Amino acid sequence: MRLAPLLLLPQLPVWILLAVAGVQLSAAVDARTQATAEAAHSREQLSRMEAALRLTLDLETGVRGYVITGQSAFLTPYREATAVLPGVLATLREGTAAQPTPDRPAQLARLSRIETLLERWQARVGRPEIAVRGRSAQEAAALVARGTGKRLIDAVRAEAAAFTRTEGTRLREQEAAALARLQDLRRTLLEYGTAVIALSVLSGLLASALISRSYRRVSLAAERLARGEGGVRLSDRGPQEVRSLSAAFNRMSEQLGAAQQEAQGRAADLAAQNARMGALGDLSDWLQAARGLEEGGQILARALPTLLPGTRGSLATHNASRNLLVPLLTWGEEVASGGAPDGCWALRRGETRWPQDSGFAPACLAGPGGGGYVCVPLFSHGETLGILRVRPEADGHPLPADLRETLPAVARQVALALAGLRLQERLHQQAIRDPLTGLFNRRHLEDALASAGAHAAATDEPLSLIALDVDHFKRFNDTFGHEAGDAVLVRVGAALRDLAPPSAVPARPGGEEFTLLLPGLDTGAAAALAERLRETVAGWSLSHAGMALGQVTVSLGVASLRVHAPAPEGLPRAADEALYAAKAGGRNRVMVARGLEVSPLGVFAH
C-alpha cells in the first residue's frame, strides 16, 4: 500500500467536521455582518437628523439675528442652511426608504411632515420677516411677536425627536442582535475548534503509529552511516514510499565513499583558495600603505608570483599625457613591454583576452611576442589604468586550471590599487605645486628646506638658495594686463625648471617671487647658476597676443648655509636681503650675501 492513503484516511473525519464548521461559521459571520451593517446605517441616520436640526437652528437664528440687528451678515447661515438642508433631508428619506423595517412608513411620514413644516416656516416666517425687516423694524417685530415661527420650529423639533427615538430604539436592538451573533460565533468557533483539534491529534497519532516503525529503521541506519560505518543497507519492506526511500538510502550509502574522497580533494582546493584570499587581503593592506606607483610596483612584484603561481607576466601602466603604456613591473623572468595602448585588443574592446579565445581577433599588435598570453585591461571609473599580461611560467605548458577564477579578483585588486595610487599622487602634487607655473609652492619649499638643512648638517655638504624676483612686475602687469603677466611668470618658471640641477627644488612662494633651493652647491656654483638665469631671461624677446612685451629682467639674491646663515631657516632671509640689495643697486643683477653684508657679483645694465 502507498503511504499517501495511510496518511489521508485518518484525516477524513477532520475534513468533514471542518466542512460543517465552515458552513455554520459562514452563516454566523453573515448574520453578524448584517447586524453590524444595520447598526451602522442607523447611526448614519441619527447623524443626518442631527445635522438637519443644526441647519434648522441656523435658519431660525439667522433670520432672528437679521430681524433684531438689520445687518445682512446674519443672513449668511440662513442662506447656507437653505441651500444644504434639502439635500440632507433627501438623503435621510433615501436612507429610510432603503431600510426594510416595520416602522419605515412612520419614519417616512415624519420626514414628510418635517419638510412640510420647514416649507411652511419659509413661506410664513422666514422670507416674510426678511422682506418686512428690509422696510421696517417695527413691522418685522410685529411678525415675530405672533409666535408662528416658534410654533413651526417646535413642531419640527418634535417630529425630529420622534424620528430619533425610533432610530435609537432600532439601533439598540441592532447592536444587541450583533452582540448575540458575535457570542454565537465565538461559541461555534470554540466548539468546532475543540472538536477539530481533538480529531487532528487522534488522526496524527494514528498516522504516526502507522509509519514510525518503518522510518525508525531508516533513522537507525542513517545514524550508523553518520558514525562512519561502511556498507550500511536497509531491507526492502514497508509502504511503497518507504521501499523507495530504502533503495535511495542504499544508493546513497554506496556513493558516500566516493563523495568523501571528492570532498577531501575539494577541501584542499578550498584551503588553497582561502590562502589566496588571505594573500589578497594582505596585498590590499600593503598597497594602502604605499605612497606612490614605485612603491606599489615593488609590492605587486612580490605579490603577483604568490597570487598567480605557475605564471609569469608583466604590468604596464597607462600614461594618458603621452598615450603610452609604461612598464611598471615583471615577475617570473618576464621581459618588460610597453607600447601604444591602441595596439592592444584587450584595451580596445575593454575585455580580458585569453589565448584560446577564437573569433576574428588578430594577434596583439603591442604585446610581447609569442602566444599563450592572457591580457587583462585595467579600468577604474572609465579611466584606463594599464594592462596586465600573464602566461605560463614555462613555454609549452598550459595555464593553471584555476586561473580563470583567481585572475579577475587579482586584476580588480590591482586596478583599485593603481587608481588609489594615482589619485594619491595627483592630490599630493596639487598640495605641493603652484597651479600657474607647476613649480613647488611655499609649503613644499619649507619642508624641502628643513629636510635639506638637516641633511647638510649631518653630512657637512653645502646648501645654497637663490631668491629671484621679476623687475618692475607691477608696472608690467598694469601696462600689458594680468594675462601677459601670467605668461611671463610661466616662462620664468620654465627657465628656472630647465636650468635647475636634478637635485634642486624650484619653487614659486608667491606673486613674482621665485626660489631655487640647491642641495650640494656652494656659494660660487649657486652664484654662477644665478648669473645664467639672469642672462637667459634678459635675452628674451617676448610677445603675448600679438603684442611685443619688451625686455624682461630679473634680480637675484644668493645665500649659502653656514656662510651667510647659521641655520636653514635663515637662508631665505639672507637670500632676500641680497635680492633687495640687487634691486636697490639697479636691478637686472645678481647679489651674493656676505654674512651680515651683501656684495655684488656683477652689475649689468638694462
Kindly describe this structure:
There is one protein chain. The protein is of the alpha+beta class. It has 15 helices and 12 strands. The strands form 3 sheets. A 6-stranded mixed β-sheet has the order 6-7-5-10-11-12, with helices on both faces. It is flat, with a radius of gyration of 52 Å. It starts with a helix and ends with a strand.
Characteristics of this structure?
single chain, 606 residues, alpha+beta, 6-stranded mixed sheet, 4-stranded antiparallel sheet, 15 helices, 12 strands, 13% strand, flat, disordered C terminus
Helix percent reads: 55-70%
Mean pLDDT: 81
Decide which structural class fits the backbone: alpha+beta
Low-confidence stretches: 596-606
The Cα radius of gyration reads 52 Å
Q: Mind summarizing the main beta sheet?
A: 6 strands, mixed
List the total number of helices: 15
Q: Give the tally of β-strands.
A: 12
Structural shape: flat
- Series of secondary-structure elements, N-terminal to C-terminal: HHHHHHHHEEHEEHHEHHEEHEEEHEE
Major sheet: arrangement of strands? 6-7-5-10-11-12
Q: What percent strand?
A: 5-15%
The rounded distance between the terminal residues' Cα atoms is 121 Å
Which secondary structure elements does this structure contain, and how are they paired or packed?
Blueprint: H1 3-8, H2 12-69, H3 76-97, H4 104-135, H5 137-145, H6 148-226, H7 240-289, H8 293-307, E1 311-319, E2 324-331, H9 345-349, E3 374-380, E4 383-392, H10 403-432, H11 442-459, E5 463-470, H12 473-480, H13 482-499, E6 505-510, E7 513-519, H14 523-538, E8 542-544, E9 547-550, E10 554-560, H15 571-584, E11 590-594, E12 597-602
Parallel strand pairs: 10-11
Antiparallel strand pairs: 1-2, 1-4, 3-4, 5-7, 5-10, 6-7, 8-9, 11-12
Helix pairs in contact: 2-3, 2-4, 2-6, 3-4, 4-5, 4-6, 6-7, 7-8, 7-10, 8-10, 12-13, 13-14
